[in-house]
């Protein structure tokens, strides 16, 4: 954006009201005979930001087709991809971001008249919930079927995975050697007492991990594992993975569980970040893998546009970007991963169909509550 | 439910019985008075109903089948929630009450090095959102943060205990909210404390006794008013407690709603929370009832103290200022500088103007409503008015997320009805500024109402009568007498509301128009992915913009002194 656009923006109607209100405050502050608030308010009805709208319309290229996305994915992770799509096709993409829960509540309330065409989110648990609430419509797409393995798609076609993230074990190589590590369940062993760091159970990533363990180990055994984890904690649970990984680096704990791309981002910033990745459960069920994904919204009035965008996101072009821009794994088989991802070595992913995470989510949360995992 | 105004109108009317003779004019006058009363109370009823709708929507969502989640919540979640809530409220009451009152007393009654600076600088944390203070503090003092890393480099291994628990959260919330107490206590001391000094000196009391026997009891209603705001903020906070990972009502509601997808359970929890608030409000009103409304201009006399005592005061102020504002602020600047190249782009102009725009519209709207409610409350101070006033101010404690959903559901329903009847063709209301305005107004009504109400209570009956005599029309009376008298309260209300709206996150996220991203939305974008460093720039801008109203507030409260 050039300077003159900025100055135009600054002088536009959007600023008159704040200035007026601030002026009013100052006038009141130096009050002798001030104007009444009512008067100022009446005089300054909020000007619609038509200028902005017009500018946006002009910026969009010809066909005027727009896809509106409700996204819980961080804007700047997904925006480069969407910008490229607009470049290639001329289709405008509008992005509304919020947390998953409120987004679904919003879709629910808007019903058939929603402006949204596509829901873009992370974690199969969230996609499963959205589908269960009837917010996503089934679509048949040979492109998606070809690009995305079945275990990362909804059997009924209501949502599809678009990228993969592995949730695995990280360790401090100065205190732990890789051969001491094996499975998630093993971290409940008393030998890790006071050495384990975990993220909060409130995060859906952990809920899905526990759900997958329930599927593999059964409820009883899983609960025992969680209790063991809690007993082994080195410190209060963390509210995000980045802080957890930094705690391992700082020596607060020796092992922890986190998502692969958080580690990738930290390595980007600090190439000699003193933490190593370990692919969990290689001798058993495989490393827990989750997806970020999307679905076509039931009330969409541009379902076609949404599906085309989803298909494009599963194409080679976009899949390569996921890996390089956000350190996630491509969902499509045979895409070249970035050098960093390759340096972590090959691993066997868990074969479970990711929709299980959603089906078992409630039970998983209840189990973690019972076991005292905050 | 709400008693309808009509029923109260039939109660005995004692509206300025004049000594006029002549029954006809008297009855006309009475008629007129009755009509005015009915209209006023209807307006108040409407406003409070309006403010109640989102809360009612949430509380009345019993449509979903009751899961057995409630049993689970009661057994495994609620005990922890109640315990944490009690600890947080107690900590915030004691710590922010003590800090706020003590610092207000020092800066308004003593002369010490830096006193002039601290009198306004200690207000600055008001501009720092609690969730920002939370993530910055954790970033600094956690095991892997710069503080402990530096200590370890010096060979000091005594670990600072983990702050990611209820105690850390209580401490941070206290530091974030003490300015409410400080601001109000300061106003009280400036207007009354000096009189207390004079009286105390005449009686030959020691300073400690002047404070505890005279000044504090007089200022207590103001202190309690500040504590009420701090307690409400504490109960409704979601962002900060999430950073510390502490289970409170807000996180439990979130869990019930978005983890278990049980709106019913969420509503039950919200009802419980509102019950807790009612207790807090009733407690506060008990003190309010005792509040004296005398306002006197004291002399500008201050205590004289010895040098060491002066230094101790400077040290105390410095300490609070450093921990609650300067260090986190410096950390924000540091992070911003580190990420500026990568983050800053022209869109930030939009983020800032959007934030300003939304805050301005909302604040102006709330101020008008607050004046109306306060005036009606003064004219007709009976039980039903009191109840409606309380209800109109209830939104402050409902977690923003719940309120956002509660307002979104009826609006979207209305939209769908309009489309169904062919009046509009698209979602006309849902994406409009109106929804955001309503939701934010509901949430922050009380912030503006409190100061306006306090100011109006200071208006004596004589002043009002004089104004009536001297002016030709009600409009002129308002313009020339009432508003100038009200203006300090209105201004305080405007400014407090403005800062609050700037800081607000969940409602803005859910109800904003497409493309209307604000600074708070940007903070959310970054923190949701754990990119703390990159959340610094928008956070810093929120603080900087919020500083302007805070500065005006200070000038104003000094002027009163």
Question: TL;DR?
Answer:
Chain A: Residues 1-29 form the signal peptide. Chain A has 374 residues and is α/β, with parallel strands linked by helices. Helices cover 46% and strands 14% of the residues of chain A.
Give the tally of β-strands of chain B.
0
**Number of helices, counting only DSSP H or I runs of 4 residues or more of chain B:** 21
Identify the CATH architecture of the domain at 67-261 and 304-328 in chain B.
Answer: Orthogonal Bundle
Poorly predicted ranges of chain B:
1-21
CATH topology of the largest domain in chain A: D-Maltodextrin-Binding Protein, domain 2
Q: What is the H/E string of chain A?
A: HHHHEHEHEHEHEEHHHEHEEHHEHHH
CATH topology of the domain at 67-261 and 304-328 in chain B: MetI-like fold
Helices and strands of chain B, in N-to-C order?
HHHHHHHHHHHHHHHHHHHHH
User: SS-based structural class of chain B?
Assistant: mainly alpha
Percent range for helical residues of chain B? over 70%
Q: Please give the radius of gyration of chain B in angstroms.
A: 25 Å
CATH class of the domain at 67-261 and 304-328 in chain B: Mainly Alpha
Measured distance between first and last alpha carbons of chain B = 43 Å
Shape of chain A: globular
**Main sheet overview of chain B:** none
The percent range for strand residues of chain B is under 5%
Which chains have the largest interface?
A: A-B, 82 and 93 residues
Low-confidence stretches of chain A: 1-15, 30-64
Largest sheet of chain A: 10 strands, mixed
Q: Please, what is the CATH homologous superfamily of the largest domain in chain A?
A: Periplasmic binding protein-like II
The overall average pLDDT of chain A, rounded, is 84
GO cellular component, one term (chain B): plasma membrane
Membrane topology (chain B): Multi-pass membrane protein
Biased composition (Polar residues) (chain B): 1-27
Transmembrane segments (chain B): 43-65, 85-106, 118-141, 166-185, 210-232, 252-283, 311-335, 355-376, 388-413, 419-440, 481-499, 535-554
């Amino acid at each position: 954006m050039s300077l003159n656009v900025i100055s135009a923006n600054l002088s536009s109607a959007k600023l008159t009201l704040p200035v007026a209100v601030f002026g009013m405050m100052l006038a009141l502050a130096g009050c002798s005979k001030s104007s009444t608030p009512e008067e100022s308010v009446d005089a300054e009805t909020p000007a619609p930001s038509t200028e902005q709208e017009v500018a946006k319309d002009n910026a969009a290229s010809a066909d005027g087709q727009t896809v509106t996305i409700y996204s819980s994915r961080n804007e700047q992770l997904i925006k480069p991809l969407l910008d490229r799509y607009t470049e290639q096709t001329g289709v405008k993409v509008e992005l509304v971001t919020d947390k998953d829960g409120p987004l679904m509540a919003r879709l629910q309330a808007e019903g058939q008249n929603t402006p949204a065409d596509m829901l873009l989110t992370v974690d199969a648990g969230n996609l499963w919930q959205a589908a269960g609430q009837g917010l996503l419509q089934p679509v048949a797409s040979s492109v998606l079927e070809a690009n995305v393995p079945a275990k990362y798609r909804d059997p009924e076609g209501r949502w599809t995975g678009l990228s993969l993230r592995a949730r695995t074990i990280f360790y401090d190589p100065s205190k732990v050697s890789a051969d001491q590590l094996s499975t998630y369940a093993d971290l409940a062993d008393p030998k890790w007492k006071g050495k384990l760091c975990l993220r909060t159970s409130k995060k859906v990533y952990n809920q899905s991990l526990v759900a997958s363990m329930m599927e593999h180990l059964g409820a009883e055994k899983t609960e025992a594992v969680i209790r063991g984890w809690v007993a082994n904690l080195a410190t209060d649970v963390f509210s995000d993975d980045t802080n957890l990984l930094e705690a391992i680096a700082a020596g607060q704990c020796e092992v922890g569980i986190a998502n692969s791309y958080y580690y990738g981002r930290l390595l980007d910033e600090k190439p000699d970040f003193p933490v190593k990745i370990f692919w969990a459960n290689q001798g058993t069920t495989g490393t827990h893998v989750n997806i970020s994904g999307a679905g076509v919204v039931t009330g969409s009035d541009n379902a076609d546009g949404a599906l085309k965008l989803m298909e494009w996101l599963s194409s080679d072009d976009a899949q390569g970007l996921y890996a390089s821009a956000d350190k996630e794994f491509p969902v499509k088989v045979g895409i070249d991963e970035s050098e960093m991802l390759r340096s972590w070595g090959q691993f066997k992913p868990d074969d479970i169909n990711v929709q299980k995470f959603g089906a078992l989510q409630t039970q998983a949360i209840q189990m973690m509550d019972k076991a005292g995992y905050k | 439910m709400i008693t309808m105004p009509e029923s109260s109108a039939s109660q005995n009317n004692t509206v300025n019985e004049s000594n006029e003779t002549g029954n006809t004019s008297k009855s006309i006058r009475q008629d007129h008075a009755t009509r005015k009363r009915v209209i006023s109370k209807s307006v108040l009823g409407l406003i409070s109903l309006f403010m109640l709708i989102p809360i009612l929507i949430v509380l009345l969502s019993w449509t979903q089948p009751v899961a057995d989640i409630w049993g689970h919540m009661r057994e495994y979640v609620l005990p922890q929630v109640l315990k944490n809530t009690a600890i947080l409220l107690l900590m915030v009451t004691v710590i922010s009450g003590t800090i706020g009152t003590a610092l207000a007393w020092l800066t308004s009654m003593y002369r010490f090095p830096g006193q002039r600076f601290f009198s306004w600088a200690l207000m600055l944390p008001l501009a720092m959102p609690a969730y920002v203070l939370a993530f910055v503090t954790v970033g600094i003092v956690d095991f892997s943060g710069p503080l402990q890393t530096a200590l370890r480099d010096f060979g000091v291994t005594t670990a600072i205990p983990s702050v990611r628990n209820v105690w850390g959260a209580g401490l941070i919330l206290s530091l974030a909210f003490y300015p409410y107490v400080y601001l109000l206590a300061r106003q009280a001391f400036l207007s009354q404390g000096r009189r207390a000094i004079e009286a105390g000196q005449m009686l030959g009391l020691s300073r400690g006794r002047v404070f505890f026997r005279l000044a504090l009891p007089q200022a207590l209603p103001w202190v309690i008013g500040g504590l009420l705001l701090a307690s409400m903020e504490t109960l409704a906070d979601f962002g900060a407690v999430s950073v510390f990972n502490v289970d409170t009502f807000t996180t439990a509601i979130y869990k019930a709603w978005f983890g278990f997808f049980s709106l019913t359970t969420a509503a039950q929890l919200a009802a419980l929370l509102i019950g807790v608030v009612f207790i807090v409000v009733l407690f506060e009103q008990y003190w309010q009832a005792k509040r004296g409304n005398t306002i006197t201009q004291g002399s500008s006399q201050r205590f004289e103290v010895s040098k060491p005592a002066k230094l101790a005061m400077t040290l105390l102020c410095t300490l609070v200022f450093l921990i609650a504002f300067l260090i986190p602020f410096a950390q924000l600047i540091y992070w911003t500088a580190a990420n500026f190249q990568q983050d800053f782009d022209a869109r930030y102009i939009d983020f800032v103007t959007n934030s300003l725009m939304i805050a301005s519209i909302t604040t102006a709207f709330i101020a008008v409503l607050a004046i109306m409610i306060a005036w009606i409350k003064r004219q007709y101070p009976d039980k039903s008015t009191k109840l409606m006033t309380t209800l109109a101010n209830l939104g402050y404690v409902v977690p923003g997320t719940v309120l956002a959903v509660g307002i979104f559901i009826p609006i979207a329903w209305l939209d769908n009805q309009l489309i169904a009847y062919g009046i509009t063709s698209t979602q006309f209301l849902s994406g409009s500024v109106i929804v955001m305005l309503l939701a934010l107004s509901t949430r922050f009504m009380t912030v503006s109402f409190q100061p306006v109400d306090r100011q109006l209570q200071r208006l004596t009956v004589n002043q009002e009568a004089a104004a009536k005599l001297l002016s030709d029309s009600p409009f002129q009376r308002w313009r020339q007498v009432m508003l100038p008298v009200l203006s300090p309260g209105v201004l305080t209300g405007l400014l407090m509301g403005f800062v609050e709206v700037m800081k607000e996150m969940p409602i803005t996220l859910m109800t904003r128009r497409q493309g209307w991203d604000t600074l708070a939305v940007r903070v959310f974008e970054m923190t949701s992915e754990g990119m703390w460093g990159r959340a610094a720039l928008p956070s810093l801008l929120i603080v900087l913009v919020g500083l302007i109203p805070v500065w005006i507030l200070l000038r104003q409260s000094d002027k009163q002194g």
